[in-house]
């Protein structure tokens, strides 16, 4: 199955090669498989340490927690994000989610996977944040699931999409404040009873595109912990500062 | 991209050099073995080499295919077969491509399966005859007629009809009278071919009923690929204004269709997968329905790549898609690389992809939309310029303007036309209403075309550039393009260097070209036409042929001159005032720069002659009246002696017969001599044979080989070693068997246009080299 998928990717790479940088449209250097040229890569807003030990927001010194995390706390164990949610990154994620450029999952996933490799996490299972089936129908694909699949292929960790289910068709989170976001998501996620056994004492990696206040991640983590998961890590493409 | 390049190179190689497929296989295995040994190191290069050889193999295999009906060429055969593809039905003839199942020759039946082009003509001759019965795709026919292999080019650099048909898998043509064709069965009604034909005929019917007339035919050409319905004059107008591409279904039409389809699917709210399937099926169906010419196939493949990419969330790269499309087409039909429509189609999209950006930059003072439109038009025009100059000898500066005006209208017309066909199939009156605005828009397109034609400098004729010049031109374009090779730091410097190389090459070829006398007796059907080039490069045209129902000047003479690099003539000679000698001259004198004209005024001026004189005086061409005893030095050591007419004698020999006023000219160049005799008959021959001072090596046989000329006394007096007869299909019995016998008795080698095509004579270092086209 994975082999067939790789073969298909190879064929598609011949038909749809990445020749030009997805940001500046100039020819790519050799080996820039993720599709962004060296020059543009240098301008991307990577989040470097020192960062918050929980939500990975930049901090002033090592091993500190940021103010929000000290105040509110999180239900997950630790989160990492590749980029700051800058204008460039916002446009990139918009192109990916709404512009129909699914293949950007490989670009974004590449950077996420590199970050995952640098971390000390021992992950047993990848779970992408699910979409409600109505939303899935209207958007046509789950942006987190594609990222999750990519990470799974690259790091050899199984990706499970059926365990965590979004049972309530919540309103979109954009435009809500911290409090309403949490309320909006209350009881939005459930876990199929028969699947609880799979989560017992496992380290879970939750994958999403944007980490704003962490409400989605918290909501998911809560259910996962309740089902018996050992640790819940969160990996996102971008973090809103 | 690289795969395409080497594969195409392989095919070109196999076309240029004969390669036996058998020799290629071991080499390929060896390289594949090397690939296994070296493993990863040079895998890419080995793969390229393999693909190169595979291209050679494909090309060579296609070239090896032979004609299964070769032994029966020229015989009358009976064949049974199924009509395939779209029949080409016109008023006075119908052309079918038949896939034969059996062929009967001399009461023997052979089970030969091959594609044959069958032309059916009305039973009776005359102007009012029409074809009564037409057949449809899928019909099983029995046809009796004469089978012939299509001829290769009949004149130097002329159109090669034979290889044109061979590329379509057709090796034979059969011409038959309508009474010798019979329908012996209907094909199965469920074959794809039949369904396609049903839709094609249905659409055609709708267009005929709802639109009709000139606009209807235009739509049929633009939407259904029935280009033969466009009258030659309008086609000319489109070609001259650089709009001919809209008549051939191509990327433009497919693009409009894709836009229409995506609107339809968004109205129907189809799911992504279903939408893709829906679009793909319709595009492929449309492509097959219109005859799957290379340009349509290219456009459909490219749009499918684009649409699939959209469904998969991948962006397609234009150049890569172009290369993929070309590769796929050449994989299936390698010989398409020689096809003009293939070359033009790919060159134009490539140049739009590569040149659009730099050109748009140059026009950035204009609003973005306008500059983008100009850049698209200009880049396509620049890219195809070398090829259109080479194939059609045309450059139309007005084309960019015409395209900017016409293309948006055409978009509405194509989209509207598709909708019209759809609605017409359901409910005809609806289509009739829809037709009103579309008819108006079609007329608008005609108006723009006519307007563009009328502008000064709308188009001009050019000489075919050499292959060397074309390569230099494309290198220049490559350098100014977006994908400029990285090692070039100073593009303008390299451009100048390229131009310098070009000029040096031209100078060199001018210096090294052999100095020889060249004479070409062109095959213009029934009629005389001879082109002479003196050793120092002076060009002389003697007569221009002319046959009723054909445009000898436009179709044969002018292309011959331009394709062989002749842009101006130093002297045009008219032997006498008959149409079969001068009709073709009209267009040459009109289009090419001519320095001088030589004639002997005819006894009675025909309309064609009067028109000719009008052009000569309008263009201010110097006129020489030929008279016996004159000698013209037409080039270095090259003389043209006028032996006849002499006024006194000519007036007695004339007797109302223009032929007897024909110029008789002796061309002398060193030791070589050629006698041109026009259409003189017995009387003049008798007069000439009495006072022939010199003999001639080569004789142009008088009056197309008629029995009333070439008397024994005359032939003895001239005593040529070789003779050329300029005749084609005719009702006068030219050349007559008696003439041929007289020539044979004197051991004169005879070359005939009707049998050999054009006859080329070259005289160099005291030797004649004579070649013929066939």
Describe this structure in words.
The complex is a heterodimer of chains A (241) and B (774). Chain A is α/β, with parallel strands linked by helices and 241 residues long. Chain A has 2 domains: 1-43, no CATH class; 44-239, Rossmann fold (3-Layer(aba) Sandwich), CATH 3.40.50. Chain A is built from 10 helices and 6 strands; from the N terminus they run αααβααβααβαβαβαβ. In chain A, strands 1-6-5-2 form a 4-stranded parallel beta sheet. Chain A has a two-stranded antiparallel ribbon with strand order 3-4. With 774 residues, chain B is an alpha/beta fold. Helices cover 50% and strands 18% of the residues of chain B. Chain B has 25 helices and 26 strands. In chain B, the strands form 5 sheets. In chain B, strands 17-16-14-12-11-10-25-26 form an 8-stranded mixed beta sheet. In chain B, strand 20 and strand 21 form a beta hairpin. In chain B, helix 7 (232-240) packs across helix 15 (428-454) and helix 13 (368-392) runs antiparallel to helix 16. Chain B is globular. The model of chain B has no long low-confidence stretch (mean pLDDT 83). Classes of the chains: A alpha/beta (241), B alpha/beta (774). The A-B interface holds A 12, 14-17, 19-20, 100-105, 140-141 and B 272, 305, 308-310, 312-317, 319-321, 324.
């Amino acid at each position: 199955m994975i082999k067939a998928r790789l073969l298909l990717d190879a064929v598609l790479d011949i038909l749809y090669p990445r020749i030009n940088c997805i940001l500046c449209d100039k020819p790519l250097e050799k080996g820039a498989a993720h599709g962004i040229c060296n020059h543009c890569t240098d301008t991307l807003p990577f989040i470097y340490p020192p960062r918050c030990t929980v939500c990975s927001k930049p901090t002033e010194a090592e091993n500190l927690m940021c103010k929000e995390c000290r105040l509110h706390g999180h239900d997950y164990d630790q989160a990492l994000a590749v980029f700051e949610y800058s204008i460039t990154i916002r446009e990139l994620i918009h192109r990916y989610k709404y512009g129909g450029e699914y293949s950007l999952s490989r670009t974004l996933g590449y950077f996420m996977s590199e970050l995952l490799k640098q971390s000390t996490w021992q992950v047993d299972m990848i779970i992408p944040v699910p979409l409600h089936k109505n939303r899935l129908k209207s958007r046509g694909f789950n942006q987190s699931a594609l990222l999750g699949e990519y990470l799974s292929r690259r790091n050899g960790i199984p990706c499970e999409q059926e365990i965590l289910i979004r049972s309530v068709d919540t309103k979109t989170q954009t435009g809500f404040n911290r409090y309403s976001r949490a309320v909006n998501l209350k009881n939005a996620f459930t876990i199929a009873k028969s699947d609880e056994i799979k989560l017992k004492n496992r380290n879970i990696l939750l994958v999403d595109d944007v980490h704003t206040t962490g409400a989605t991640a918290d909501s998911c983590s809560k259910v996962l912990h309740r089902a018996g998961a050992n640790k819940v890590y969160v990996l996102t493409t971008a973090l809103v500062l | 991209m690289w795969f395409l390049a080497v594969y195409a190179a392989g095919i070109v190689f196999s076309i240029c050099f004969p390669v036996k497929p058998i020799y290629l296989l071991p080499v390929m295995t060896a390289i594949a073995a090397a690939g296994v040994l070296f493993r990863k190191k040079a895998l890419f290069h080995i793969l390229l080499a393999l693909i190169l050889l595979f291209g050679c193999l494909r090309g060579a295999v296609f070239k090896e295919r032979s004609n299964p009906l070769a032994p029966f060429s020229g015989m009358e055969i009976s064949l049974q077969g199924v009509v395939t593809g779209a029949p080409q039905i016109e008023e006075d003839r119908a052309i079918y491509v038949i896939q034969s199942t059996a062929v009967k020759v001399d009461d023997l039946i052979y089970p030969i399966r091959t594609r044959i082009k069958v032309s059916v003509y009305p039973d009776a001759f005359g102007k009012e005859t029409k074809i009564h019965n037409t057949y449809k795709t899928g019909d099983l026919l029995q046809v009796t007629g004469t089978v012939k292999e299509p001829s290769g080019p009949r004149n130097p650099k002329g159109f090669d009809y034979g290889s044109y048909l061979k590329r379509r898998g057709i090796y034979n043509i059969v011409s038959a009278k309508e009474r010798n064709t019979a329908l012996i069965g209907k094909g199965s009604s469920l074959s794809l071919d039949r369904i396609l034909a049903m839709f094609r005929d249905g659409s055609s019917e709708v267009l005929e009923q709802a639109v009709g007339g000139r606009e209807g035919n235009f739509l049929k050409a633009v939407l259904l690929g029935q280009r033969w319905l466009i009258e030659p004059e309008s086609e000319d107008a489109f070609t001259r204004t650089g709009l001919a591409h809209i008549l051939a279904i191509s990327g433009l039409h497919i693009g409009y269709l894709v836009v229409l389809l995506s609107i339809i699917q968004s109205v129907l709210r189809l799911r992504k997968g279903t939408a893709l399937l829906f679009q793909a099926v319709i595009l492929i169906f449309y492509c097959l329905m219109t005859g799957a010419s290379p340009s349509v196939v290219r456009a459909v493949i490219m749009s499918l790549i684009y649409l699939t990419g959209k469904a998969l969330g991948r962006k397609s790269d234009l150049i890569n898609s172009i290369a993929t499309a070309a590769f796929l087409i050449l994989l299936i039909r390698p010989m398409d690389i020689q096809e003009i429509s293939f070359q033009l189609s790919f060159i134009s999209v490539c140049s739009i992809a590569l040149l659009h950006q730099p050109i748009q930059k140059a026009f950035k003072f204009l609003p973005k939309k306008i500059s983008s439109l100009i850049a698209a038009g200009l880049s396509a025009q620049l890219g195809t310029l070398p090829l259109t100059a080479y194939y059609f000898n045309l450059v139309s500066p007005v084309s960019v303007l015409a395209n900017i005006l016409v293309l948006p209208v055409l978009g509405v017309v194509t989209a509207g036309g598709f909708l019209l066909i759809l609605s017409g199939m359901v409910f005809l009156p609806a289509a009739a209403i829809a037709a009103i605005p579309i008819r108006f828009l079609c007329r608008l397109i005609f108006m723009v075309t006519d307007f563009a034609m009328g502008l000064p400098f709308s188009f001009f004729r050019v000489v075919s550039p050499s292959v060397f010049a074309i390569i230099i031109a494309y290198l220049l374009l490559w350098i100014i393009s977006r994908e400029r090779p990285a090692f070039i730091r100073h593009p303008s410097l390299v451009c100048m260097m390229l131009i310098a190389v070009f000029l040096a090459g031209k100078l060199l070829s001018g210096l090294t070209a052999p100095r020889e006398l060249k004479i070409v007796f062109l095959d213009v059907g029934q009629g005389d036409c001879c082109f002479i080039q003196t050793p120092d490069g002076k060009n002389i045209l003697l007569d221009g042929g002319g046959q009723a129902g054909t445009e000898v000047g436009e179709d044969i003479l002018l292309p011959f001159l331009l394709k062989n690099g002749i842009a101006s003539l130093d002297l045009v000679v008219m032997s006498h005032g008959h149409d079969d000698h001068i009709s073709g001259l009209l267009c040459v004198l009109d289009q090419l720069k001519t320095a001088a004209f030589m004639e002997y005024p005819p006894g009675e001026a025909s309309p064609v002659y009067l028109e000719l004189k009008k052009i000569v005086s309008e263009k201010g061409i110097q006129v020489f009246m030929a008279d016996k005893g004159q000698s013209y030095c037409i080039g270095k050591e090259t003389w043209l002696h006028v032996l006849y007419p002499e006024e006194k004698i000519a007036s007695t020999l004339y007797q109302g017969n223009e032929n007897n006023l024909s110029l008789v000219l002796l061309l002398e160049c060193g030791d070589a001599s050629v006698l041109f005799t026009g259409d003189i008959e017995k009387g003049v021959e008798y007069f000439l044979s009495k006072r022939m001072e010199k003999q001639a090596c080569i004789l142009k046989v008088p009056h197309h080989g008629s029995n009333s000329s070439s008397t024994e006394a005359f032939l003895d007096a001239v005593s040529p070693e070789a003779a050329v007869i300029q005749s084609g299909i005719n009702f006068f019995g030219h050349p007559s068997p008696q003439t041929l016998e007289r020539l044979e008795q004197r051991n004169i080698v005879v070359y005939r246009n009707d049998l050999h095509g054009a006859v080329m004579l070259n005289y160099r270092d005291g030797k004649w080299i004579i070649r013929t086209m066939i």
